[in-house]
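User: Second chain of the day. Same drill as before.
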Amino acid sequence: QVQLVESGGGLVQPGGSLRLSCAASVTPFSTYTMGWYRQAPGKQRELVATMFGSGGTNYADSVKGRFTISRDTGKKTVYLQMNSLKPEDTAIYYCNARRELDYWGQGTQVTVSS
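Assistant: Same format as last time:
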């Protein structure tokens, strides 16, 4: 059974940084497209960042230049480094693994507030 376990969320002041982690039980890890999505209250879930099996990346315009997705293939973990956080980044962040099917983590809350 595939499991995605997120960690690293929390409360941070505007301008601060957080790093989210997602440990995935998918195999082989490098063949999956790994992504981070977020959902703010009253809004639809949206794509934040994606890392393809090739290592290529894609970002939402709203986070370009501030967020970085990366992975450690040996640890089967994908990360989301979030810098220069803004209040509008407040949301539940979900990890996604995609190949033939979509798998989701349980989500981790990120709150940006002074």
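The CA atoms of residues 43 and 74 lie 35 Å apart.

User: Great, on to the next one.
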